[in-house]
């Protein structure tokens, strides 16, 4: 192999693949992004890079930021290569790569978030965006309201000038902007939350109100929080990705692999301006809710349909789950008979057409999206993605048999052993409580449903509870594969053409 080229501004012209054609030294920042993971670099940073390649958005470069100690490692890697990233597109037709350069700085990680606050207070910063995961917004689990009692929020309210969280830093930066006579920035969540802009507004304004009610009113009246829907599968980086990037002749300490599909839908609510993202494929819509409902329910809830049984059976990746005949048929049946019944069409897709797209994406064997990653934090993902669908099905008097099976498989996974006897390692912030409930539910299924922080009033729904009890008892008696086969075999003659998933593999 030829000598590897270490990523740097000076080395860009040596690269034999697509790379920044713009003068990165002339870029000026307009965005601070908190949570610089693989998804951000494969998605938001890529869209901005594409604009810059067209000679636009030169004053909208990204300053990266983090608030947790582990963010420092990513900062070190990117700082050493001038914040450049190699994106590797994994498509069965062709694997390709490009280097993007829309990030120009990464702030140091500090206990008091001083550098982050100072950067967000600068008038040039017009957007602060976040990917802090769906569980990172300090939501009270049963109501999804603001959790003012969380120790982090209590601390930030008592120490508003030296907060420990991203939201506390945003509030302090907004206080400084207001005091200097400057307007606010736009708060742009890029996390997989229904109404993510509304959730971000709830967290920021309620936290501000704990220490400065007048500032909270100013934020509510002047700042904008557009809802958005984001979509691109970008697996965690490991040895495979490092080997891949070397095949392109590049020494990159933090490469990102991703699928070919990308989608970003945003409300037109930007109080301080925005890049012309529509030029590079971003959709601006007044009905983001319809797009995010389709994506969160079919894709994100669909991930939970696959991941828990995948763990129980010892499968490594989501594509392996889709290659398993029984799991693929179960996935199609739950989606076609229950999940898609709660999804409205959008201009680009009808629900079953979007389901076809998701099946193809999940089945891509080049995307090494691990079952463990997808199953992580089920105590947030099931209430966030799966249970709202189950609730809607119950309200409409429709079947919840498949969704009850999904929940039973989650309970089976949380017991902590696979069917081959191996141990499932802790994979949830509340693993001990989940495992305790799952072990007790083996003999008394209702114990699982009595986890109020997860199920709330759903535990009292007779149709759901009965189906859940029956499925969990059968799983322990017969095994997961046999139960899935039982479920798939109940397909009605009328629906059978929709459910021939195995014929599509």
Count of strand segments: 13
Strand content: 5-15%
- Can you give the mean pLDDT? 94
The largest β sheet comes out as: 5 strands, parallel
User: What is the CATH class of the largest domain?
Assistant: Alpha Beta
Protein structure class = alpha/beta
Summed up, the domain count is: 2
* Strand arrangement in the largest pleated sheet: 6-3-2-7-8
Classified in CATH, the superfamily of the largest domain is: NAD(P)-binding Rossmann-like Domain
Helix content estimate: 40-55%
CATH topology of the largest domain: Rossmann fold
Distance between the ends: 36 Å
Which CATH architecture of the largest domain is right? 3-Layer(aba) Sandwich
Number of H- or I-type helical stretches: 21
GO molecular function: oxidoreductase activity
Domain Mannitol dehydrogenase N-terminal: 30-278
InterPro entries: 6-PGluconate_DH-like_C_sf, 6PGD_dom2, Mannitol_DH, Mannitol_DH/Oxidoreductase, Mannitol_DH_C, Mannitol_DH_N, NAD(P)-bd_dom_sf
Protein name: Mannitol dehydrogenase family protein
